[in-house]
């Protein structure tokens, strides 16, 4: 299941940004399909769209409360358990103005409009890659690779106020965020999100299965 608007996609460019972050040895260990997905750079303003389905989702009570509170700053976390087995769409657009990408994730729900999560990835900061979720809030990420795919783990959270970047103290950070992209073969991949707290354990977990464009 997939869709892609070819009118939005001029010929792709080679993208060495993830390769540089990982290093040659780690990059070489990745499946060829993952190298293709993360090794091409869309021309400014072009988009690629992946379609799939939410296949697993879990939130404990603390996670539900956090996800609802996070709606005040743009709803960066899945917040409706009825998204399970519903359609999922991910759109990636190259940032024309900066060195990064815009990500849009759409999750269907049993009733009403789908949840839409907006974020922006920038290849900057002390870890080399950051994700901005809105209202000046960002997450510095560390990326690693293995024979199955890529894993992004939160290093710290920060907020930008009046041009200043302030690192959030540990007691204000919601937990350790882990996002993985696991290749499953046959042009499929699993996108997994997990937010875990030392105090409240697994707050939010979600798995979604996607297909490459053209399949």
CATH architecture: Beta Barrel
The shape, in one word, is: globular
Secondary-structure element order, as H and E?
Answer: EHHHEEHEEEEEEEEEE
Distance between the termini: 7 Å
Structural class comes to mainly beta
| Unreliable sequence segments | 1-9
Descriptive overview:
The termini are close together. β5 and β6 form a beta hairpin. This protein has 4 helices and 13 strands. The strands form 2 sheets. It has a 10-stranded antiparallel barrel with strand order 3-4-5-6-7-8-9-11-12-13. Strands 1-2 form a two-stranded antiparallel ribbon. It has one domain (6-211): Lipocalin. Helix content is 13%, strand content 48%. Mean pLDDT is 92; it is low at 1-9. It has helices spanning 17-22, 24-28, 32-38, 61-69; strands at residues 13-14, 40-41, 47-59, 87-94, 100-107, 115-122, 129-134, 137-145, 149-161, 164-167, 176-185, 188-197, 201-211. The protein is globular and about 40 Å long. With 215 residues, it is mostly beta strands. The relative contact order is 0.19.
Brief overview:
With 215 residues, this protein is mainly β. It has helices spanning 17-22, 24-28, 32-38, 61-69, and strands at 13-14, 40-41, 47-59, 87-94, 100-107, 115-122, 129-134, 137-145, 149-161, 164-167, 176-185, 188-197, 201-211. It has a single domain (6-211), classed as Beta Barrel (Lipocalin).
Helix and strand arrangement:
Blueprint: E1 13-14, H1 17-22, H2 24-28, H3 32-38, E2 40-41, E3 47-59, H4 61-69, E4 87-94, E5 100-107, E6 115-122, E7 129-134, E8 137-145, E9 149-161, E10 164-167, E11 176-185, E12 188-197, E13 201-211
Antiparallel strand pairs: 1-2, 3-4, 3-13, 4-5, 5-6, 6-7, 7-8, 8-9, 9-10, 9-11, 11-12, 12-13
């Amino acid at each position: 299941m997939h869709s892609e608007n070819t009118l939005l996609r001029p010929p792709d460019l080679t993208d060495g940004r993830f390769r540089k972050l990982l290093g040659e040895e780690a990059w070489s260990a990745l499946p060829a399909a993952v190298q293709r997905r993360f090794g091409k750079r869309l021309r400014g303003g072009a988009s690629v769209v992946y379609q799939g389905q939410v296949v697993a989702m879990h939130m404990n009570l603390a996670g539900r409360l956090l996800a609802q509170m996070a709606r005040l700053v743009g709803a960066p976390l899945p917040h409706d358990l009825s998204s399970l087995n519903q359609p999922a769409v991910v759109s990636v657009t190259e940032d024309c103005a900066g060195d990064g990408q815009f990500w849009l994730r759409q999750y269907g729900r049993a009733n009403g409009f789908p949840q839409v999560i907006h974020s922006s990835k920038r290849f900057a900061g002390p870890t080399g890659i950051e994700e901005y979720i809105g209202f000046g809030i960002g997450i510095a990420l560390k990326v690693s690779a293995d024979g199955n795919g890529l894993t992004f783990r939160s290093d710290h959270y920060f907020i930008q106020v009046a041009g200043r970047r302030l690192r959030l103290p540990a007691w204000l950070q919601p937990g350790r965020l882990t996002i993985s992209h696991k290749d499953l073969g046959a042009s499929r991949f699993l996108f997994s999100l997990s937010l875990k707290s030392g105090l409240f354990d697994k707050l939010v977990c979600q798995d979604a299965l996607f297909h490459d464009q053209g399949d």
